[in-house]
């Protein structure tokens, strides 16, 4: 069971650090499993009404393969900047859609995750905030800096962007915010020929 702190009404979970440790263990395992693909992002993926918590990892190799698939499908850059189709589409896809070029996974310890989900009693905002806190703990206590961490419910890239800003601050992580802004500007210029 959990209690609320009178100062901020945030849940105080008895296994709070254990969940952060579980996230870190999965992150470490995932980065090792995909190290040959050069991981650049890790996202906690939450389901609707606290029914699921998994994760996804984005890698440079999967991104390159996805860019090639888009080019083979006829997507081209139609903007005014001096960019090749491949560079423009890569820039656009890197943060545009968490479905493109991301590997989806489930946590190995489903019992602990189920307990964590149950603590949020169907409140998606509470789960999202809890996930943000877990990722902040992973960063501060484990020194994770090689991949960008975030939270999303699925396909909306703005959810991931907003979570990165909430975790790392207004500047985001490394050059994430600048890359995201560039992606947004390219959005109208990438289409099938």
Topology (SSEs and partners):
Blueprint: E1 3-4, E2 11-12, H1 16-33, E3 39-46, E4 53-59, H2 60-72, E5 75-77, H3 85-96, E6 102-106, H4 110-119, H5 124-142, E7 148-152, H6 157-168, H7 176-186, E8 190-192
Parallel strand pairs: 3-7
Antiparallel strand pairs: 1-2, 3-4, 4-6, 5-8
Helix pairs in contact: 1-5, 2-3, 3-7, 5-6
Question: Could you characterize the architecture of this molecule?
Answer:
The chain has 193 residues and is an alpha+beta fold. It is 49% helix and 18% strand. The strands form three sheets. It has a four-stranded mixed beta sheet with strand order 6-4-3-7. It has a two-stranded antiparallel sheet with strand order 1-2. The protein has a two-stranded antiparallel ribbon with strand order 5-8. Helix 2 crosses helix 3 and helix 5 packs across helix 6. 32% of the residues are buried. The N terminus is likely disordered.
- Spatially, the strands of the biggest sheet line up as 6-4-3-7
Q: How does the overall form come out from the CA principal axes?
A: elongated
Q: Report the β-strand fraction as a percent range.
A: 15-25%
Q: Which structural category do the helix and sheet elements fall into?
A: alpha+beta
Number of strands: 8
Main β sheet profile:
4 strands, mixed
Helix content: 40-55%
Number of helices: 7
Subunit organisation of the chains: single chain
Distance between the termini: 56 Å
Could you report the average pLDDT, rounded to the nearest whole number? 83
- Alpha-carbon Rg, integer: 18 Å
The ordered string of helix (H) and strand (E) elements is EEHEEHEHEHHEHHE
Stretches where pLDDT is under 50 for at least 5 consecutive residues are 1-14
